[in-house]
Amino acid sequence: PEQKLIKVNTQNILFICGGAFDGIDRIIARRVNTNAIGFNVNKELQEYQHNNLLQFVNSVDLKHFGLIPELLGRLPVVTYLNPLDAETLRSILTEPKNSLIKQFTRLFELEGITLNFEPAVFDFMVEKALEYKLGARGLRSICEGILTDAMYELPSQKVKHFDVTLEYATRKFNTTKLSLLKV
Q1: Which of 17, 58, 148, 162 has the most Cβ atoms closer than 10 angstroms to its Cβ?
Q2: Distances (CA, A) of 44 to 35, 40, 41, 51, 107
Q3: Buried/exposed 160-179: b ≥16 CB within 10 Å, e otherwise
């Protein structure tokens, strides 16, 4: 079979690249001197800048990190995102129309099981996502780790109602491979 190349005009296509770039903060710290000396130094501002080095990221830092200049030349805007906090993660977990909790609740409903969560379970899931630095994507893995056994066992037991307690969530999470992750 003969391969044919197709030319695509990328003039009106927006490319978005993203990643964790673990360790780039050290490259930024070397470039940005946040240790000012003097009597009029704003210690709070200095502390904030030191703890939020990503706000100073630029293409040169990405080049030193290892991205090739040919790729960087095609990225006209370089910016950063703040890490998600507990409140935002909890919102992601519970509020959207297709939130993880609503998805899992629907899966159980398809088997005729009413799923109910203690509010402390949400806090536990968020706490683990933050502790293990898993972010929003990690919430799905945490939910699956806690609920997988129930998804397979409860339908055959003819259970109609299932309460996910903090004790149950903690026990199930501690038996998952996620609990073995070291940050």
Answers
A1: 162
A2: 12, 12, 9, 11, 49
A3: eebebeeebbeebbeebebe
C-alpha to C-alpha distance for 162 and 150, rounded to whole angstroms: 9
* HEC profile of 43-104: HHHHHHHHHCHHHHCCHHHHHHHCCCHHHHCCCCCCCCCCCCCHHHHHHHHHCCCCCHHHHH
Higher pLDDT, 105 or 75: 105
- Which residues have C-beta within 8 Å of that of residue 59, sequence separation ≥ 6? 72, 75, 78
What pLDDT digit, counting tens, does each position of 28-53 carry? 988 886 555 555 666 676 676 667 78
Main-chain dihedrals φ then ψ at residue 58, nearest 5 degrees: -145, 180
Residue 34: predicted pLDDT = 55
Cβ 124 vs Cβ 178: under 8 Å: no
Quickly list DSSP for 119-147: HHHHHHHHHHHHHTT-HHHHHHHHHHHHH
Q: Is 92 exposed, middle or buried (0-12, 13-18, 19+ CB in 10 A)?
A: middle
181: left (phi over 0), alpha (psi -120 to 50) or beta: beta
